[in-house]
Amino acid sequence: MSQNLSHAVMAQRHEAADSFDLFPTPPWATRALCEFIGVDRDLKRRRAWEPACGLGHMVRPLSEYFEMVYASDAVNYGHGAVRDFLFPGDEPAFDWIITNPPFRLAEEFAHTMIDRASEGAAILVRTAFLESVGRYDSLFSKRKPTAILQFSERVPMHKGRLEPNGSTATAYCWIVWETRPHRPCANGVPAFVWIPPCRRKLERPADYEVAA
Q1: pTM for this predicted structure
Q2: At 88, is the pLDDT very low, low, confident or very high (cuts 50, 70, 90)?
Q3: Which alpha helices (DSSP H) does the chain contain, by range?
Q4: d(CA 109, CA 51)
């Protein structure tokens, strides 16, 4: 079973090759995605899979929007099933697959998510993920995203924990693929959308409690 490992999530961070990549997502950043994809669809009738759930900080806000959320991770963090998403399994079909993937494996996650999701897939990555000739050739030119959602405010992520007063120098965005076209790209060009400042609106005091 492969491990969720990463070279970096922060632009200037150097991660050991055998380190687990656990950078919990602030729940308000997940709600921002759900607010976008839920504009013209009833998410309460959809099922979602979070395949790199870590400590469960993305699962809880997803559960506020979706009918059911299945959580898993290749590493046993004590939340969700222990399974490697990149290996085929016997999981049921899910409408949406949404995660903050290990950065080193983000491209593999994207391909697998697009293949498995019946309606759509979304990954949260540092904006620098959009760069790279190799990634363009192997992913973006072949499987164009429906939308790129760029946060206009910073999404602070820290190794192994959430920090309500944390800061970051790294920019993040959501990349969304609609696997069953629902909102097709105009002229085949992905929509580039700025997520307006939303932390104050979408953040909850309970977000920084230990995930159950």
Answers
A1: 0.87
A2: confident
A3: 27-37, 59-65, 106-116, 133-135, 199-202
A4: 9
